[in-house]
Amino acid sequence: MNPPVIGRSAALESALRTARLVAPTDATVLLTGETGTGKEVAARLIHESSRRAGEPFIAVNCSALPEALVEAELFGHRRGAFSGATQDSLGKIRAASGGTLLLDEVGDLPLAAQAKLLRFLESGEVQPLGESRAARGDTRVVAATNRDLMSAVGAGRFREDLFYRLHVVPIELPPLRERDGDVALLAAHFLARFAEQHDRPAPRLGKCALKRLHAHAWPGNVRELRNLCERLVILHPGSTIEAAMLPLPAAAPASPAGLALPAEGLDIFALERSLMAQALALAGGNQSHAARLLGMSRDRFLYRLRKGT
Ligand SMILES: Nc1ncnc2c1ncn2[C@@H]1O[C@H](COP(=O)(O)OP(=O)(O)O)[C@@H](O)[C@H]1O
Ligand SMILES: [Mg+2]
């Protein structure tokens, strides 16, 4: 059974309302939102609320697959189609037949696989590697992305026709910082859940701690809050949590920090390299988050990173 979807904010409710409306149809859905906002949760909700509920739900992370294996993984292959293909393989699209396939990080699909995916979405046909005849699959596709697919289209990395095909019903999961009141509900839920799981008394959140949680920007969204709650249950069972006990960076200053230029000057390129490295570390290696921390687009961030500025 799926964990409950927690939250009563208008921003989340609006996304869930669209998810419930589209669920009973076979329409392709594009879920967007920052990492940890619940895109996979929403995809499961759509699956569970559809006539496909008793059938498989399979999630594939397109960015985690080596490019050479993506097509085999999704569309299947015949034994001997490439070195290492020791057996026939159905591929995830047909493995999820009757059910739902979540293509997570769909923006990272290589162009050749994008062409094959479009063909499947238009005609229901899949072409396994090393197989002369096309096969068919009855699989509902839900795609998810944490970045702006339209800019990937502009940059030539994502097919425009596939973009529009996936974009039939877009659903945007709001960032946690824009969900009024949900932080407290989610924290209470996760504290109780992890207390039970670890067999510890649940900690309580003091007033100031709760205020601090509300002020935090949550770059990792619900996932970040969930992990923080698990940590609190383990480190402070049964305690009242004060703001200082929260493993969060000091509250951000109210105005953008002004860096005073030292009298002897500074190496602005070294400073930029250092800030970019710090942003990456703060963001746990997530480039989109690191870019956001510095107020840059991901593309610009990557460009500067490659260039070494
Ligand atoms: N509204 C919610 N209620 C309860 N748990 C949630 C909610 N949204 C996300 N989660 C939890 O947060 C974590 C990240 O969610 P996930 O769907 O994997 O995010 P994404 O796919 O957008 O990165 C998961 O453990 C998920 O169960
Ligand atoms: Mg995910």
Architecture blueprint of SSEs:
Layout: H1 10-22, E1 29-32, H2 39-48, E2 57-61, H3 67-75, H4 92-95, E3 100-104, H5 111-123, E4 125-126, E5 135-136, E6 140-145, H6 149-154, H7 160-166, E7 169-172, H8 182-197, E8 204-205, H9 207-215, H10 221-235, E9 240-241, H11 268-282, H12 287-293, H13 298-307
Helix pairs in contact: 1-2, 8-10, 11-12, 12-13
Bound molecules: adenosine-5'-diphosphate and magnesium ion.
Class computed from helices, strands and strand pairing: alpha/beta
- The CATH architecture assignment of the largest domain turns out to be 3-Layer(aba) Sandwich
* CATH class category name of the largest domain: Alpha Beta
Helical fraction equals: 40-55%
- Beta-strand level of the residues, as a percent range? 5-15%
Fourth-tier CATH superfamily name of the largest domain: P-loop containing nucleotide triphosphate hydrolases
Low-confidence stretches: none
**Spatial order of the strands in the main sheet?**
2-3-6-1-7
